[in-house]
Each structure stands twice: as structure tokens, then as C-alpha cells.
Amino acid sequence: MKFLVFFLGLLVRPQAVSLARRFDSEKVFRVTPQNETQVNFLKELASAVQLDFWHPDSVHHIVAGTDVDFQVSSYLANHVQMKLEQNELQYEILFHNLQEEIEKQFKGKSYFLKKHSYLKYNDWDKIVAWTERIARNNPKMVSRIEIGKTYEGRPMYLLKVGKETGRKRVIFIECGTHAREWISPAFCQWFVKQATSTYGKDKEMTKLLDSMNFYVLPVFNIDGYVWTWTENRMWRKNRSNNSNSDCIGTDLNRNFKVAWGTESSSDDPCDEIYCGSSAESEQETKEIANFIRDHLAVIRGYISFHSYSQMLMFPYGYTYKMAPNHVELVNLIMGSSPGFSKMYKLNPASGASLDWAYDEGIKHAYVFELRDHGRYGFMLPESKIRPTCKETMLAVKYIASHILASAP
Ligand SMILES: [Zn+2]
Predict the structure, then answer these.
(1) Domain residue spans in the chain?
(2) Where, by residue number, is the active site (predicted)?
């Protein structure tokens, strides 16, 4: 009998809970180094043992006085904890058992059976069906374009959102670059829904859609996103093979042709911030870069969505030089949304889409780091999708209106 129950249990088990990569007893630490000595200690620790950085996204970005969140395997957790204590670093354990959190997120989901929802995280199949449906239901407002294919051959869909009248200025919106940042694609879906459902009701949105088009890429790194639903919830990079290495994937946000392979990127295919074998070596990067180059004449703004930390950032990340319109960018951010409490220049990084777009001539380029401040990080519960998207929507409308007013 026991055997039978066990066997049935296997049959009805929601598919996603059995992700191949498990995180039993893996911990997520939050450490706040107080001075340079502690920063250097953390950097040394990261070179000695495998730490997976959640925020900031690599060891290069650690600065004194700011929180550093990283994930550690179960067999290293005690060692790391001891080292932190020996060196008198303040720390907190955000997750004691990451596997439990992942199971909570997938619990009862049987995701392949449930319908698409703006208040839930949707897998790629549901997002594809949604792109088709929202275009069909809003023929005068939304059209779906395939801009290319991913490494694994999935079509990369872009939604063009705006009232169909002649040649218009464009804001390009990119979501889902880093696979595990699920709140980002959720926002892109929310944005399209809000745009279509408030047209004619909300004055600001109506004006925006009458005068501009939004090109919305709901998931940039589709192969990686699929992987987070089927194999490894914490995957970040794309899924391309690397010659001379067993490690898979490139960080698409280090792969653009802008100071490629220099500041805060890695040439080791096993690193999370691996920049690829050359600029635009990745299929996904190439497709998006080509599309943007082809449409440069009309694109006035570029907005990219990541998580987490609730910050809004702007160029440059590859140099400490200020962008020529630095003051304008700062003022805009200060007025944009109370939800984005902090304002920072982009973290140092090279090959990022934001800087690339800026240097291609798109003078309004921003990165949002969505919720939260790290209580849940990448495991942000679905109950937070609505407040996150609402506050972000306010900021995006504010920025878009400014672009409309200032970029002919
Ligand atoms: Zn990211």
C-alpha cells in the first residue's frame, strides 16, 4: 500500500517542483562590510570558495557600507559563517534552506494546467500564448513581431504597442535579461495590459500611446527563463554552449558591444558575469542589437528591467565619466517615483545593454532594479507583483512623458 501511495504521489506531483537542481540547506547570507578591510576580506573569501552573488551581481561591486547578498552551498555554509564571525562582519541569514522557498513558490502550481495571470509568474508557454492573444484582442493597438530566434531556437517575440498612426517615436522596453529575475517579465506583461486597458481613460497613457510606440520585449533571455522553470530556479545566463568549457551560458548583459570584456565582467565561462567569446557572440544579443540598429532613427528611449534593490540607474557603467546629459537624467529620476527611493549611477559593468543603447545615440536610457530590498530577493512572492508593477508603472509613465516632451 505504501508503495502505491508513493507511486501515485510521483504521478500527481507538480512537474516544476522536481527541478533537477536542488538547493537543500543552501543559505543566502546578507553581509554589510563596514570598511575596506572587510570588503577585501569578502573579495578574498569569494576567490577561495564559491559564492553566488545575488546583489550586487558580482564581487567587483562590493562597497563598504552597503549590503551584499550571496548564496552558499550547504557544505560551505558553516565554514562561511565561521569566517564571517572570525572577521567580525555583521551578517544575517536571509534563507536557511533555499529549497524550501523554491518549493513554496512552485507549490500547487501545476503550472502547465493553470491559466495566464498578471498576478502570477507565468512560464514561457503561457507568455507566448499571451503575446498572441493580446495582439489579437487589440488589433489597433498591439502587434506581435518576431525579431529572431534564441540559441535553442525559440522565437523572440516583441510587442509593438501604440495607436497605429504613421511614423512615431519609440521607447524600447526590455525585460527578462537575467533568467531568475522573474518579476521583470511580470512587469512587461503588466505594462502591456495597463497600456491597452487604460487607453482612452487615463489621460497620460492616452497621450503617450497616441504619440509614441512602445516596443516591449517581454523576455529577452528566453532559454534561460525556461531553464529556471524546468531545471534550475537560480539560473541567470543564457543557455549557449561554450567551446573549451563544460560551463554553459553567457551573461547577456555583459555581451553588448560597448567597452566589451573590460570593467566588471569575466572571461571565465563558469562565472555568472561571463561576457561571452566576443561582443555580440550570443544569438539573443545579436538579434536585439540588430533590431535596435535598424530602428535607431525612431528610438528615443531604452528601459531595461532587472531585480532586485528598488533602484533606478542610468549610464555609464563602463566608465566613471558622466553621461553628457547627466543632470537631465538625475533630475528625471528624482521626480519619477517615490517607490524608487535611491538613485544611483549604474553599477560598474561593461557590455551592458543600457550603455550600449546610450552610445548608439539613445539619450534616455535607464535600468530599473525592481523589488524588493532583499527580504525575498529573486524569490519575491507573487503577492508583491501588483504593488511592484503599480509603482513601476508610475515611474515609467513619468519617464515616457518626459521623453515625449523633450526628444523630438
Ligand atoms: Zn539582472
Answers:
(1) 13-106, 124-229+278-406
(2) 369
